[in-house]
Input
Amino acid sequence: MLKRRLLPALFLAALLSEARAKTENWIEVRSQHFVIAANSGEKQARHVADQFERMRSVFHRAFPKLHGDSGSPIVVLAIKDEKEFRALEPEAY
Output
């Protein structure tokens, strides 16, 4: 279980450290169940957070007996365009 949580966290840390090396501004937006790290501006990051909360709500209503909350928020990396994504994407991926 620890391995399952640690690997995505390490991947995200590597991506964010790479992103910090650039001169772009990254922001963090939090919602009830998600943390959005974005380089697309606060308005877009809040929109992404809202969309994830809505989808979570849809799944929660569709599968009421499924208890998927881990107790900690899910981290979402929201990149503004494909060019930026390609720059952060690992070559082995």
Observations:
- The mean pLDDT is 82.
